[in-house]
Amino acid sequence: MSCARSGALLVLLIGACSMATQARGQATAISIDSGKSGARFIVHMRIPMRAEGELTQVSGELRGSIASGWQVLVKVDGRSLRFDGPRWMDRITRSEAFLAVDRHPAIGFDSARFSDAVLRGGGPVSGQLTLRGLTRPVSFVLLPSACVRVGRDCDIRVQGTISRHAFEMNAHRALLRDDVDFHIRVRLQSESAAP
User: Fold this and answer.
1) Quick check: is 148 in a domain?
2) φ and ψ at 143, to 5 degrees?
3) Dist. CA 72–CA 110, nearest whole Å
4) Can you tell me the distance from the alpha carbon of 24 to that of 20, in angstroms, rounded to the nearest whole number?
5) Is residue 95 part of a domain?
6) CATH number of the domain to which 95 belongs
7) Domain count, the chain
8) Whole-model pTM?
9) Which residues pair with 84 in a beta bridge?
10) Are 195 and 31 in contact (CB under 8 A)?
11) Does some domain include residue 12?
12) DSSP labels, 119-180
């Protein structure tokens, strides 16, 4: 190969590397794949019984870049609730006294910005949770990633516990404890660039 051709190839490679580095610093918005994402919740009862449900309509996006950090915005349709357990618990969970999904179907979590190291290795993620038409600050935990292409080859997993009372779910105190656990799993659209 001639020196001129070698030099041209080197310039092209340097240019490609430079463009890739710039792309890593540019903010992007990657959509959540609704068909591969979901949210579960566990209601702690005062009797020896497990009350668990799933919210199947999850959407939103992951925003940011490796350089500037990330923000996850998750939207859930509360009407997609599926409850594992007796029908009376399903009715209570959907009711005005609990999630009030008919009147307030929009459930959302908007995180504060977090680093790429947290996205890949896990750590605390704070943000705002909207539930029953009320928005409150919460602190969740982003679990460590199990793959290189986070959100593409494995789920982004967030979990945490909220207080029912903070969202004015004060009924059924004799039956239900205050804490409710949330487990959110997010998969990104496959055609998007992986973070």
Assistant:
1) yes
2) -80, 155
3) 6
4) 6
5) yes
6) 2.40.128.110
7) 1
8) 0.77
9) 52
10) no
11) no
12) HHH-EEEEEEEEETTEEEEEEEEEPPPSSSSBTTTB-EEEEEEEETGGGT--S-TTTEEEEE
Q: Can you tell me which residue has the tokens 């199947």? A: 56
Burial class (CB in 10 A: 0-12, 13-18, 19+), 122: middle
Using DSSP's 3-state secondary structure scheme, residue 2 falls into: coil
Task: Supply the range of the domain harboring residue 181.
Answer: 27-186
Residues 6+ apart with CB under 8 A from 13: none
Query: For the chain, how many helices (H) and strands (E)?
Result: 3, 11
pLDDT tens per residue across span 29-76: 999 999 999 999 888 878 777 788 899 999 999 999 999 999 999 999
106: closest CA among 74, 140, 138? 74
Q: What number of residues does the chain have?
A: 195
**Position 7 in a domain:** no
